[in-house]
Each structure stands twice: as C-alpha cells, then as structure tokens.
Amino acid sequence: MTRQPYPPASRDELVDDLHGTPVPDPYRWLEDPDDPAAKSWLAEEEALFAAEMGGLPGREAFKARIAELLRSGSIGAPVWRGGRRFFMRRTPEQEHAVLYTVAPDGTERALLDPMALDSTGLTTLDSWQPDKEGRLLAYQISVGGDEESSLYLMDVALGERIEGPIDRCRYSPVAWLPGGEAFYYVRRLPATEVPEGEEQFHRRVYLHRVGTSTEEDVLIFGDGMEKTNYYGVAVSRDGRWLQISASRGTAPRNDLWVADLVASSPQSPELVVVQEDVDAQSAVHFGRDGRLYVFTDRDAPRGRICVTDPSTPQFEHWRDLIPQDPEAVLSDFAILDDLDRPVMLVAWTRHAISEISVHDLVTGERVGEVPTPGLGTIGGISERPEGGHEAWFGYTDNTTPPTVQRYDARTGETTLWASSPGAVEVPAVETEQVTYRSADGSEVHMLVISKPGVEGPRPTILYGYGGFGISMTPGYSASILSWVEAGGTYAIAQLRGGGEQGEEWHRAGMLANKQNVYDDLHAAAEHLIATGVTTASQLAISGGSNGGLLVGAALTQRPDLYAAVVCSAPLLDMVRYELFGLGATWNVEYGSAEKPDEFAWLYAYSPYHRVREGVSYPATLFTVFQSDTRVHPLHAWKMCAALQHAQSSDRPILLRNETEVGHGARAVSKTVELAADQLTFLAHHTGLTS
Predict the structure, then answer these.
(1) Are residues 416 and 429 in the same domain?
(2) pTM
C-alpha cells in the first residue's frame, strides 16, 4: 500500500536556553488546540489515519472478538454498611458498570446507572462512599472524560438525589461521621482564588453538614500548604478518630495526623502528628479491639504492619506485628474477630502473583493461608465493619474474568461468591513467568502469554509501564486474549519504577534512575529475540500514560529493535511536561526542568527532543484523547509531527485523536473501537495474519 503524504507542519526556529543548553521546540504551536493551524493539522491527521487504517485487514475480526470477550461483564467485591451491601456489576449488554445495593431482606436494585444518567455514555461514575449506616450515599460523576468530578448525595432507600452538585471534587475522598449528618471531603479552591494556570491544584479538607450550603463548610486542613498536595481523610467506624494524610503530588511519602474527635470537636480537630517530613508512606487503621494498626514501608520497603495504642501513634511506639517479608510485597489486610482466636488476613504479591496469609491477631504468628483460585491478582479484601468471620476479595487472572471470592475463617474455605455475569468462551493460553538480566545485571521478571503449542518466532507485543510504584499483575484482558488467540505472543515486563518488588524497585526507576526503566525494556526485547519467541521485525511495544513515555523513549533510543509502536496518552516533552494537565504533581517522580541537574536527566531521554532526522523509525500509532486533563494530547501531537518530519522509511507515523473521552474510564464500545485499531495496526506491522 502506498503511503499518503503527511500533513504539512511548519517547523519554527524556536530555541529556549535552559541552564545554558539550547533546547529547540519547532512544534510549540501545536500546544494550542485552538490555533487555526493546529486545528487544520489535526483534521488532516484524522483523515490520514482513516485512510491508512481503512486499508488494513482484520479490524472487524479483532473488533468482534474483543467485543465478544468483553461480554463477560464484571463484578466488584461487596461493601457492607448496616446490613446493606453495595457493589458494582456490568452485565454483557451494559456500556458501564452499575452500582447496586442489596437490602437486609435480600432485595437487589440498581442505585446508580451511568447510562440512565446520560444515554450518550459520556458520563462516568468516578467514586462512591456510603455512610456508616448505609442510609446515604456520596458519589462523584464526571462527563466527557475530563474527570472533573462533581459530588452528589443520595438517599439510598428512596434512590433519590438529595444534594449536589458540589464541584471541584476531583480525587476527593469522603469520610462520613456516624449518623450520616456530616462528612469530611477534599475540594479545590475556586479558580478565582488561585494563580492562573494552577486551577487543578490547591486542595483543602472541609467538613460538610448534610442539608447546608457549601458556603457553610468548615475549613479543616490544608491552608498554606504545598499547592500540589493530595489529601486523604478517614474516620474510624465508631466516629472517634480522624486521620488526615498529605502527600506532595504523587510522591512515595506522606505526612500523617490523627485527632481524637471526643477530646476535640469534629469542626476543630486537634491533630497529632504520626509522621512528618519522613521519606516513607504510612496509613493507620483503628481496630475494633482498641489497637491502632499501622501499614507502612518505613524501614521496610516491601511493607510491614505495626501496632500501637491510638493515644501514642508516633513511630517510637510502633511494634511489629507483621514484619517485612524478604521477597513478597505487602498489599492489604483485614481483621476477622468473631472467632475464638481472632486473625488478620494479609495480602501479598510475590513477583506480582497474589497470595493471602492468615495470622494470629495478637501475636502476628502465621497460622495458615487463604486458598485462592489460581496464580492471579487479588483485589482489596473487604470485611464487615462491625466484625465477623467472613472476608471477600476480588480475583482475576489472564483467563478468568473478575470474580468475588468469600473466605470463611471458621472453616478455612474459600468459595466463589459471585462471577462476572456474562458467559464467554475464553481461548486457551499459556502463561510463563521468565527472568532476564538488564543492562546493569539487575534481574527482571516478565510474563509471557502465548497460545499452547506454538513454536518458532511469532508476532509479539511487549508491554510495560515502569513508574509510580504501579505493579503489572495478571488480569483478564479481551485485547490480550484476542491477540494471543490470533497467534501472537503478549509479554508484560515488570520493569523498575513499578511496585512488583517494593518501594526500592520503584525508586530504582524514578528521578535520576529513569533510564533503568528503558534499559529494562530493551533487555526484555532482546531476551524475547534471543530465546526465539520473536524477531525484531515481528516485535511491537505498547504503553500508555507513563507507559507511553516508556515506549516513546524506547523508539527513539533503539529504533532498530522494534517494528511497531502503540503510544497512548503519553508524556513525551519532558522539558515542558510540568506546564500542562497534572504535570506539576509528577515532578516528584520525574524531576523538574527548573533545576539544572534534574533538567539534565529529563533532557537526556525526553523523547520529543531525541528525534533525529534520517532515522528509520518503527511504524508508530499515537492514540490520544482530546478531553484528557491528566496528560495533555499536545505531547503526542508534537512528537507525531517531529517523527513524520524525521522518518526516513515508509513505515507510517499515525495519530488517532479521539474526542469526548479522557485518560480514565470510558464506555465499553469506545474501548472496543480503540483496542481494535491498536491491534490491527500492530498486527499489520508485525506480520500477524491469522
């Protein structure tokens, strides 16, 4: 197929001087989507994408199979409040998961259906939190992918909205006081009260009383603190204890305070420091037994659980209950106390595979383990707030749609509580966990998923993320299964920067160590080639968000190693990333171009600045979302123009620019369309013809 010419994109002679280094930026005009030239260029790129993709075979087959596999639906673990439970479920025909409630008498009904709120499918349910009695529900919704959540209140019994909207509640936790008369929540200051360009920052913690105007909300915390702070807030089940945490952006550390709401009032809590200015993450849980449980990576990068008295919450009073494991990473815990010998369930991931151990609640002694369905991923463990002998947890693996499992501590048995509601025929796949060595000798793990019995090199997608301590764990994916069923291999590398091996693994791939992540990906590619899984002409890489930065860096550093790339919602201009979206909250992960030494790290790998004319780059598809308020699509726009200008071969550089969706949740039909385009593109450029 003869490739059409790329849309013309003028190259400006714009060069910034940063710390004595000339930094060219020829496509800065693409940072403004309202610029007529940018609008024209985007329209032509859309036409080019449609023309190029229209000539590729296999898209309808991928689309049909992905849609079929997504008809499994989904199910979420129950949240119990006052004999009532709440849970999310998506049936095969639904575009979005629906929030359901089940009354004490067993009557089930839909409580919040995004499609009932908006038949276009553009409204998403971002978060929800019932009060402690299960009578009221706080929930947050946003429209068109912008994630600008508005907060509402609902009377659960009536199913009627009673308050809202309260705007500026993006990423806001809600912590109810007993009785449902008031709650703490987090809200940004109005745009009129902050400097221009900082509207996404400046959060505060407030106390809101149900039935009153937000003008009467009481400011509790956050005044005069770091503008990029995120705040967490929680209230113990009995209403006595308040905890507030603060972290600068996405930093892997937090400050933490608690207040006794009996000794001080809810509107003026006397906060006591648990930890402050400490390079660690900690959270506390007030147990029904009167003890304070501390989940922390302080002096334990793989995590540990300590105990103390709530009146002495400081570090010097902590005592180990569940010490750090030398290999597994602690991820969650739950307490079951309606037993002769109360226990704590502790969830771990061992090389990204989940397990749950059982421990004596008083001594921490390991007394057993919770049976799990297989080698997969366990979601959060939930218990009844009033106590009990049962726990529920989500489970999924590469061939199992989400399920909810129930563990009974009296019998020691795990049983299936609920399955995803759709019956689908899942293809048989084999998953192998392999290890390989990176450039500096570090051992890295990788999951390799393929069709049983396949031999010889085959088209392969290598996926990675490598950032923010996020772990790549097994999970049901219609896209992966469709690719493997068609004869390809899918590999997921657990790169440094993730959380698979704990906080030290994360920090080995952030800030000055970011190049380790890219080295880990290159080494994964070389391992797949050396072991006969694939060849360079059959190997694609794929990643989104921070993973988009990963594959953007990879294609500029080793264009010879990859045949094709899908780069989704990426960060690519690492010199100016802090100026857009939520970029300023990520300088704790990447560094800041304002600081000379950190600028040097960023500029050394910034994909946009590493594009060189006359290089044969892989076939590359950028997929971005016009309403993305986390990572502005300008990154991909500028990079696409730069690569199209520089490309020396006939391998295409394409841009898929989607409107009315954002970085996060989307309707199922939009997920299907995006995945089908991505797989079709990668199949064509790696030779997958099945």
Answers:
(1) no
(2) 0.96
